[in-house]
Design brief:
Keywords: Signal. InterPro entries: DUF3016. This is DUF3016 domain-containing protein. It comes from Idiomarina abyssalis. The protein is 35% helix and 28% strand. The relative contact order is 0.15. The protein has one domain. It is elongated and about 60 Å long. A four-stranded mixed beta sheet has the order 1-2-5-6, covered by helices on one side.
Length: 168
């Protein structure tokens, strides 16, 4: 009986992972984004890291959709939390990202939710902002995840726009 319970649990786990929707994310005009720059380091490497992390977050959100659905995202602008400000040392200048309440994250993207037969279930343009983020209250959590506020903003948009819709 105990073995059957374990096998049932394993099958249940596989069935939940099989019921996940997917996401395809593309990044359009990255060089003209409002702010996707590093405080230090190589710009291309930093941009790729940000794009990879946000793509991964969109994919984890899409996993909450039914299996046959696909979320297509085309990102057109990113403005990360905070603002880069110059600092000057003995021989070089660097930048540091300063986070204040007025420097909230923003993102613009086009989205399409596509069903199993290729039909468009929902589409639109999103201009999302997280104007109510509280950096001071979450400082220790933020240090572990540079994109915490951006991911929080995208999760809220996803839940309000795609999950919590009344049946039509």
């Amino acid at each position: 009986m105990r073995v059957q319970g374990i096998v049932g649990t394993i099958l249940l786990a596989f069935s939940f992972s099989a019921l996940a929707g997917t996401a395809e994310v593309s990044w359009k005009g990255v060089d003209s984004y409002t702010d996707i720059r590093p405080a230090d380091g190589l710009r291309d490497r930093y941009q790729q890291k940000v794009m990879d992390n946000l793509t991964e977050h969109f994919q984890s959100l899409a996993a909450k959709l039914p299996e046959e659905q696909k979320l297509e995202i085309t990102v057109t602008d990113v403005d990360l939390t905070g603002r880069l400000e110059p600092t000057f040392g003995r021989s070089t200048s660097n930048f540091v990202r300063i986070v204040r309440e007025i420097d909230f994250p923003r993102m613009e993207f086009d989205y399409r939710l596509v069903g199993s037969a290729g039909e468009v279930l929902k589409e639109g343009q999103a201009n999302v902002k997280n104007m109510s983020f509280n950096y001071d209250g979450l400082a220790s959590r933020v240090r572990r995840n540079d994109l915490y506020f951006e991911e929080e903003m995208l999760t809220e948009w996803f839940e309000e726009t795609l999950l919590n819709q009344p049946d039509e």
